[in-house]
Automatic annotation (TrEMBL):
Keywords: Hydrolase. InterPro entries: AB_hydrolase_1, AB_hydrolase_fold, AB_hydrolase_sf. Pfam families: Abhydrolase_6. It comes from Actinocorallia libanotica. The keyword Hydrolase applies. This is Alpha/beta hydrolase. It comes from the Bacteria. Residues 38-264 form the AB hydrolase-1 domain. The lineage of its organism: Bacteria, Bacillati, Actinomycetota, Actinomycetes, Streptosporangiales. One of its GO terms (molecular function) is hydrolase activity.
Amino acid sequence: MILPLPEGFERHPLRVRRGTVEAIRHPAAAGRDRGETVVMVPGHFGSKEDFRLVMPLLSAVGYDCWAYDYTDQFSATGLDSYNDYTLDLLAADLVELVGERRVHYLGHCMGGLVARRAVLERPELARSLALVSCGPHMHGLRHRAMWVGLDEMLAGSGLMGMWPVVQRLLPEGDELAAGFWRSKLETMNHAYVQGTADSMRTAPDLTGELAASGVPVLVLYGSRDRRLWSHEIYHEMAVRLGAAEAVLQGAAHSPVMERPEATAMTLLNLLESAQEVCR
């Protein structure tokens, strides 16, 4: 199932050395192009379409917006080894896609962990990084419980066991999005799900390295988001990074879907300030 997108979007299947990446693009509005690109990276069970409400808002003021799925994330014939889906390899794919462009990165949850690595691999090409609902690591007690639950689910009910969790992240009453996500869970590459989970549970805290990179960072999360990280952990990470911090009222774990206008306005503050730093 393909989720219909509003007018102005483009779909791009892209090749990297390791496989195929599906992308969507919303070009900068005619006559307002700033010559700057924003690259958006989804969470573990997310997809590029999660950003469909934010992308037009940023494009309207001049940013060329792209959002990617992960390499062969929804392909039954793509990468088939758990070892193909480490955060480092997914970040390398992202760096390959970006090429020599200087870009602003936005990563949601796991996408923040991937984008953080892409920034550290080529910091000279990163204009800024927005970490949306993304903490420093996934080593806490709540994470350990989550990994155990995920392992049990995959061994038992399979990926459709995630449906109750995904439902809670979707806008209430959005039947189109619900049908789209049921379809995604039915087609998602099992190796991707298990491999990324295995990588996340051991991934190191790279906050110090990111702070030393000098790349402007925003830590953004919802006022109701305590599912994976507490507000205290988000705040502590922002302090360590010397980053801007924003709490979106009324949003939970998916501000880009729950509060797209507020998310876009907050991101614009980062993008505008990063222009001054990067000149």
